[in-house]
Amino acid sequence: MTSVISSISGWFWNEDLWLPPRVTWDSFKHPQTVNTTTLYPEQFAQFTDLWYPVPMAFIVIGLRWLVERWIFKPVGIKMGLKDHKRPFPVQNTILEKTFRRSKTLSQEDLKKLSNDSGLSSLQVERWFRQRRQAELPTTLQKFCETGWRWMFYTSILVYGFICLWDKSWFWNIRHCWYHYPFHQVEQDVWWYYMLELSFYWSLSISQFFDVKRKDFWEMFIHHNATIALLMFSWTTHFTRMGTLILIVHDCADHLLELAKMFRYASYRKTCDAIFVVFSIVWVVTRCGVYPSWILYSTLVDAKRFIEFFNAYYILNGLLVSLQFLHIFWTYFLFKAIYKALSKGGVDDQRSDSEPSDGENENEQKKDI
φ and ψ at 267, to 5 degrees? Predict the structure, then answer.
C-alpha cells in the first residue's frame, strides 16, 4: 500500500509537469542567486503554506458572523429593512413528513395528502407554500450577507493596491518572467494570497448555509475553481502573475455587492447608478485589461523569457477558459442592462431563488 501511495505521489509531483527544464523541487531547498541577491528556501512559495487558509477560513466565517450581526444588521434596520422571521404554518405531522422528503407536490401526492390529512387540496397547497417561505431568509439577512462580501472585496482591493504599488511587475508585467521561477514571495504578497484563499474557502464552506441562489452549483464551481487556480499558481511559482490576476478581478466585485445592498434596501436609483459604474469597470477590466495585459503577457511575452513546460500550458488553458467565462458573464450583464432600459430598474441575473419580503406579503394576502 505504501509503495502504491509513493508511486502515485511520484507521478503527481513529476517535475517535468510542474517545473521548467533543469529545475527540480530540490532547487527550492537551496539558496539561489538572482541578480547578485541570494534568496533562501523560506523566501520561495512553499506548498505547505497552502494548508494555512483552511483553518483561516473558519476564522473568516467567525469574523463574518460578527460583522453581519453587529454592523450590517443595525445598518439594514436603520435603512428600513424589517427584522422579522417568516411564520411557520400550523403544525401538521403528515404534511411535515412529506415536506422533508420533497418540497414540491405532484397531483397524485396532493390528492393522497388531502385524504390523509383531512384538508382540502387548496389548504394543502397553502400549507406547503407557507412552509417553504418559512425557511427562506429575509431581505435583512440577504442585506447582511451582501454587506459582508462588499466589506471584504473593498478591503482586499485596497490591500492589493497597497501590496503591489511598489512591486516591479505591477508596472512592468515582464518582471513576471524575469528570473522565473526563482521569485521571492514578500510577506505582504504571502498575506495577499493567504487572505484571498481563506476567503474563497470560507465561501465554499458557508455557501451551503447561505441564501440559496439559482446558480448555487455554478458559484460552487466558481469558488473551487478560484481556489484551484490560486493553489496552482502558487505551486508552480507563478505568484507574480497570480497577484495581477487577483487585482484585476477584485476591481469590479465590490461595486456589484454595493449595488445589491441598495437594491435590498429599496434605493433603486442609487442601485442603478452604482450598477452603471460596475458595468463600466467590469467591461474595462474583464474584457479589456485582462486579455490585453494578462493574456497577452502569458501568451506572447512569456516565450521570450522562459522555456515552455507542461504547467505553463495548463496555466494558459485555465486563463483562456477564464476569458471565455468573462465573455459569457458579460452577455448576462448586457442582458440585465437591456432589461433595465426596457422595464426600468436593474435586477441581478444571479438573483435569489426566493421571493422578496414584498412578494412574500402578497402571497400571504392571497392565502388570507
Answer: -95, 75
